[in-house]
Write a structure and sequence with these properties.
The chain is an all-alpha fold and 191 residues long. It has 12 helices and no strands. The protein has one domain. It is globular, with a radius of gyration of 17 Å. The two termini are 23 Å apart.
Length: 191
């Protein structure tokens, strides 16, 4: 099989992801997935935008590479939460996002409306708390999803593989995540 037939474009992947999330939201995909139909009740519609804003704050557009928002990671983050995480993790993330919204309102607006420096400070504080709490903290999972979805997106794989200034080890992590999935082409990706 040639490389041309093995490639999937970001557009095709997003169409598939959006179709899957639409089915999950209607409950038609509720059989055989950890969250199933219950996942739609846990994750409100505005969570995708907030997750994407968090990811874009963690992985912003730089001169060297497009950011998480340019990669469109929000839809994939919600899809992975709904399809791959336990209902308990989904509820923990949903509760954490609500707490983040409250913290943002106390600072004068929504997360997206806050200045970049204030968003970064807020996430730095969350990260410090999450590191103390360990894997059970909601932000630990959101940060991991942001990195995973970005560095496995078409944008992340093709344009973001240069060391990101904020996450110099992220490219190495993306290589580990992709091993075996690129059918012998790891040397092209991981150098």
């Amino acid at each position: 099989m040639s490389d041309a037939r093995c490639r999937i474009t970001r557009r095709e992947a997003l169409k598939t992801a959006l179709a899957g999330s639409a089915l999950a939201a209607t409950g038609l995909l509720g059989v055989g997935v950890p969250g199933g139909a219950e996942a739609a009740a846990v994750m409100p519609n505005d969570d995708q935008a907030l997750l994407e804003d968090i990811a874009d704050t963690l992985l912003p557009t730089t001169a060297a590479s497009p950011g998480a928002k340019a990669a469109g990671v929000g839809a994939m983050m919600v899809l992975m939460l709904a399809d791959c995480e336990s209902l308990e993790t989904q509820q923990r993330v949903a509760t954490g996002l609500q707490e983040l919204r409250v913290a943002c309102r106390e600072r004068g607006g929504s997360f997206a409306s806050l200045p970049a420096a204030e968003r970064e400070q807020l996430l730095t504080e969350l990260d410090a708390t999450a590191q103390k709490a360990g894997e059970e903290h909601w932000f630990t999972r959101v940060r991991a999803l942001a990195l995973q979805t970005y560095f496995n997106s078409e944008v992340g794989l093709n344009q973001g593989t240069a060391l990101h200034p904020r996450y110099p080890d992220a490219t190495t992590a993306a290589c580990r995540w992709s091993r075996g999935s690129r059918r012998g082409r790891d040397e092209d990706f991981c150098g």
